[in-house]
Amino acid sequence: MENIFTQPLEVLINGVSKQTTLKDIxxxxxxxxxxxxxxxxxxxxxxxxxxxxxxxxxxxxxxIQLFWVSKDHQESHKKFCEKHSLxxxxxxxxxxxxxxxxxxxxxxxxxxxIVQGVIRSTFLLDRDGKILKxxxxxxxxxHANKILKELI
Length: 152
Fold this sequence. Notes:
This protein is α+β, with helices and mostly antiparallel strands. Helix content is about 35%, strand content about 30%.
């Protein structure tokens, strides 16, 4: 199996889809915040992604770039970003490879029923891919602000 950091990824950046690797993404900044969310254009995911978009400059002042990860395809990402004026790059992981690697996919409680699905999670990584901090199974409301306050 290919190294997770060197596998090709589809990323939507400023409305343009391009191929890159997680290694290349991490090399662009001292730190990278990877935020895993369940689905484009759903109420909770829209709220959280909008919050992260509004705080993007604050994270960048701390030397942190933001990347979102979902299993949705690039066309879905593009419509989602355009509809809500979202500015952060979105990684498509339809094969759930990155999700599984970071433990952001698995059993979760969904309205008192145990199901398999995306576990809303966020990871702060250094340039080498080392996890500096993680937030797992988080609530959408206030998550971006909470992380920013912790990192200041």
